[in-house]
Amino acid sequence: MPRIVVDVMPKPEILDPQGKAIVGALPRLGFTEFSGVRQGKRFELTVDGEITEAVMAKAREAAETLLSNPVIEDVVNVELVND
Amino acid sequence: MPRIVVDVMPKPEILDPQGKAIVGALPRLGFTEFSGVRQGKRFELTVDGEITEAVMAKAREAAETLLSNPVIEDVVNVELVND
Where does the record locate the signal sequence feature (chains A, B) (predicted)? Predict the structure, then answer.
């Protein structure tokens, strides 16, 4: 089903305690390959009807105003996914 | 910087209270285009050195065992991103 995927990540300069906790846990579980982890959010928005450019523009607006906190987070991706 | 992106979403049959809250908030903020929202997680893993197929295999293993809870979540994507 077509849907809009919005990806939000903590800004690089913002401390990410969840990511830090995962980095600490990885080697204890045998994963020594990874030097850093950041945890963000992924949203999937569904739409009844066609996803037009106007709908994508509204999704970008919602991403910046409701789905992310622009003080501490960046919207890194807003894309249409068909599968 | 090259990094590995892991996307995790709640399984379709699992209630997603955060997504439900967002669906309720959207029309109050003037966004009437969206019929559903699911909220998941996005992880960005960094690696010192080259990201080989062996490292990607470890990332997929970490995604299934540490980054997601397989009872309630699906790993929907593990990919190498260069930018």
Answer: none
